[in-house]
Design a protein that fits this description.
By secondary structure, the chain is of the alpha+beta class. Helices cover 29% and strands 29% of the residues. The longest helix has 20 residues.
């Protein structure tokens, strides 16, 4: 598969809505979780969403590889030959989900030649889709109604959004020392990219650990709304270019 099409887009919207229903149904069991080898939690909802999304993508696009947070054991010796693949996080913001916060989402990105070419982020709690199809503008889908979203520049006070659990991050604290006229807001998951894309926040600096499936769709959506995401040297993020699957420290800018 070399090109997304409107039929696949429609199916992905339906797929993430279905996965979102499963996640919400399992929310009462969010305290039932285990800890993975990388010291991050995984719940029944993560696993159920992963299974539905992966099985459906395999049927929709059988020749396109899939890399999911819950199947990240695929070695780089295999992955490095992929020129196109699906990159998904079936439940981003698992800690928020466990803690009862609504700030969790489902992420699906299509990566081609080490960079996203499609991104979709769905909030099961709010039943809102954000996506960017090919090189079109980014949109928000609510109650079957789509609207184009655009970033906004701060008029005086810059609204900076940071991770809910980033209080003790030394890199972030040092970075914010050099900012003036701003206020900070805390939010979980990749929804931060979406809320910058629709003009609610202006800036998202990330200094803590972050995997590639956490950023790819958000990068593509934010770019389609007039923003950008770069590493601390102003370089675009790259995907599947090294053995690990970790995004570097970055800045998401309206």
């Amino acid at each position: 598969m070399k090109t997304m099409n409107s039929k696949i887009l429609s199916q992905l919207i339906n797929l993430t809505a279905q996965a979102g229903e499963i996640i919400m149904d399992l929310r009462a069991n969010s305290s039932d979780y285990s800890i993975k080898a990388d010291n991050t939690p995984v719940t029944l909802a993560d696993k159920a969403s992963h299974e539905l999304i992966v099985n459906t993508l395999q049927k929709l696009t059988p020749h396109t590889p899939i890399l999911s947070e819950e199947s990240s054991h695929i070695p780089f010796s295999t992955r490095k030959s992929w020129d196109e693949y699906w990159l998904i996080d079936p439940l981003d913001g698992t800690r928020d989900f466990i803690d009862g916060s609504p700030d969790f989402c489902i992420i699906i990105a299509l990566i081609r030649d080490n960079y996203p070419v499609f991104g979709l982020i769905y909030s099961p709690f709010n039943k809102v889709h954000y996506y960017r199809f090919e090189n079109n503008a980014s949109v928000k889908l609510v109650n079957k109604t789509t609207s184009t979203i655009l970033t906004s520049k701060p008029k005086r006070w810059e609204k900076i959004v940071v991770g809910r659990y980033s209080n003790n991050n030394k890199g972030l604290k040092e970075h914010l020392k050099y900012k003036t006229n701003f206020e900070t807001f805390k939010l979980g998951s990749a929804l931060k990219f979406c809320l910058i894309a629709e003009g609610i926040y202006h800036y998202y600096p990330k200094f803590g650990r972050c995997s590639e499936w956490d950023t790819a769709a958000g990068v593509w959506i934010l770019e389609g709304a007039g923003g950008k995401v770069t590493d601390l040297n102003d370089n675009a993020l790259q995907y599947n270019s090294t053995k690990d699957i970790i995004s570097p420290a970055f800045r998401a800018i309206a």
